[in-house]
TrEMBL record:
Residues 15-114 form the Rieske domain. InterPro entries: NirD, Rieske-like_NirD, Rieske_2Fe-2S, Rieske_2Fe-2S_sf. The keyword GTP-binding does not apply. This is Nitrite reductase small subunit NirD. Keywords: 2Fe-2S, Iron, Iron-sulfur, Metal-binding, Nitrate assimilation, Oxidoreductase. The gene is nirD. PROSITE patterns: NIRD, RIESKE. Residues 95-124 are annotated as: Disordered. GO terms for biological process: nitrate assimilation.
Length: 124
């Protein structure tokens, strides 16, 4: 499992960003896709999540340092800045509908998958 790659969909292609084994369960990392920072997480069940790294409330690129958890059946990340909680599947803020600038309070979400080292079919 140490050679399995994590890929994030960027535009029309899948971009390899790091090895699955390099993601610590429960912790995030920031990766750069083009000119956008993406917060990539591996939860304790081994599922992968990729959301925007920019906190819409502070403007800081800090979501990758947030805390993973859940609200009911929803997997979430809490921003380390003002503690707003975001759904990892949709990017929607569960605490406030709008950011201070009046835009919807949500994070972009990217599809993410793993690819076996031998070039076999990707795993969802």
């Amino acid at each position: 499992m140490t050679d399995i790659l994590v890929e994030v969909r960027h535009g029309a292609r899948w971009v390899p960003v790091l090895r699955y084994a390099d993601l610590v369960p429960g912790r995030g990392v920031a990766v750069l896709l083009g000119d956008e920072q993406v917060a990539l997480f591996r939860d304790r069940a081994g599922r992968l999540h990729a959301v925007g790294n920019r906190d819409p409330f502070s403007g800081a690129q800090v979501i990758s340092r947030g805390l993973l958890g859940s609200r009911g059946d929803t997997r979430v990340v809490a921003s380390p800045m003002y503690k707003q909680v975001f759904d990892l599947s949709t990017g929607t803020c569960l605490d406030e509908p709008t950011a201070p600038d009046g835009t919807p309070a949500r994070l972009p979400v990217w599809p993410v998958r793993t690819t076996p080292p031998e070039g076999g079919p990707a795993c969802p």
